[in-house]
């Protein structure tokens, strides 16, 4: 299979679809399981699946682990344990679509972090695209109150999920900066492995995971299985492949599709979004395509307009 930019875009979109569905499915998992325990069960399935595929596809070599063990542990702690722990804890109070929209702000922090690391700034139109996308996200989160001048309320779960999204930004950039001579599959496998171990220790200290697992419903366990295979194994692997082919900054912009998929799934479940949400989705889509160069604007004309303002 040729690793073309078009393939990278397709893989990244599939990853964001799974993540978009995770927000709704996680609510089912949390009906009878505490957050850290549910997260551990998710990655129990994910680690088994990814290492089985890893051993079959490439073989598990100690050289890669010895060379990158510290990076795998740190990135696993931040991008797997940190992001997903915040994800499950935050969704106890946050609305699934709102949570997805908060995660969509990740490209902003990722591009800023990548610019700092590489000592360069992103192109003008990419910045404009990111700002437009962020505006669309803000409109949906506040249900239009940001524009109409109403009272904007943010729940604790939203803040926790936002902190987790910052961890994902570090993970996305870190896989390219700190990991050396490792394939996307190896990086996904080892960071997921160490992240799952860290999640397990946290669950033991703050919850009673064995008791919780035994009392969980079939639906909750099924939800964990889905997000463990699709929302973890497939999504992480495809995301890291996209990063390896196109770079962290360009790949991160596609995180804006996570809330779009979340909204589509919400509609399919019979929950029709409000008009401000739909407007915000449209704004976000325009920003994504503008930032990716799919919608072209004459830079000279744009700069001329800015000077006249």
Automatic annotation (TrEMBL):
Residues 7-141, 156-290 form the EamA domain. Keywords: Cell membrane, Membrane, Transmembrane, Transmembrane helix. It is found in: Cell membrane. It is a multi-pass membrane protein. The chain crosses the membrane at residues 39-56, 68-91, 97-117, 124-141, 147-173, 185-206, 218-239, 251-272, 278-297. SUPFAM superfamilies: Multidrug resistance efflux transporter EmrE. One of its GO terms (cellular component) is plasma membrane. It comes from the Bacteria. Its main location: membrane. InterPro entries: AA-Vitamin_Transporters, EamA_dom, EmrE-like. Belongs to the drug/metabolite transporter (DMT) superfamily. 10 TMS drug/metabolite exporter (DME) (TC 2.A.7.3) family. PANTHER family: INNER MEMBRANE TRANSPORTER, S-ADENOSYLMETHIONINE_S-ADENOSYLHOMOCYSTEINE TRANSPORTER. This is Threonine/homoserine exporter RhtA.
């Amino acid at each position: 299979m040729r690793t073309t930019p078009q393939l990278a875009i397709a893989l990244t979109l599939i990853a964001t679809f799974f993540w978009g569905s995770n927000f709704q499915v996680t609510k089912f998992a949390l009906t009878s399981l505490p957050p850290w325990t549910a997260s551990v069960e998710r990655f129990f399935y994910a680690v088994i699946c990814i290492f089985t595929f890893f051993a079959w596809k490439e073989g598990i070599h100690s050289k890669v682990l010895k060379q990158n063990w510290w990076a795998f542990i740190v990135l696993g702690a931040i991008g797997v344990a940190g992001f997903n722990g915040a994800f499950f804890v935050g969704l106890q109070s946050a609305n699934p679509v709102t949570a997805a929209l908060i995660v969509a702000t990740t490209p902003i922090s990722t591009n800023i972090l990548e610019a700092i690391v590489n000592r360069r700034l992103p192109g003008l139109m990419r910045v404009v695209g990111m700002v437009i996308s962020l505006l669309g996200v803000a409109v949906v989160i506040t249900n239009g109150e940001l524009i109409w001048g109403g009272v904007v309320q943010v729940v604790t779960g939203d803040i926790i999920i936002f902190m987790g999204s910052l961890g994902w930004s570090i993970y996305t950039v870190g896989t390219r900066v700190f990991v050396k001579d490792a394939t996307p599959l190896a990086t996904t496998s080892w960071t997921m492995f160490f992240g799952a171990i860290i999640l397990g220790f946290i669950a033991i200290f703050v919850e009673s995971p064995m008791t919780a697992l035994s009392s969980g419903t079939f639906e909750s366990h099924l939800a964990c299985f889905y997000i463990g295979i699709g929302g973890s194994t497939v999504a992480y692997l495809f995301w890291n492949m996209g990063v390896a082919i196109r770079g962290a900054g360009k790949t991160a912009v596609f995180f804006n599709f996570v809330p779009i998929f979340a909204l589509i799934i919400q509609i399919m479940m019979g929950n029709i979004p409000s008009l401000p949400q739909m407007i915000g989705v449209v704004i976000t889509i325009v920003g994504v395509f503008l930032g990716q160069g799919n919608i072209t604007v004459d830079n000279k004309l744009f700069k001329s307009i800015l000077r006249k303002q």
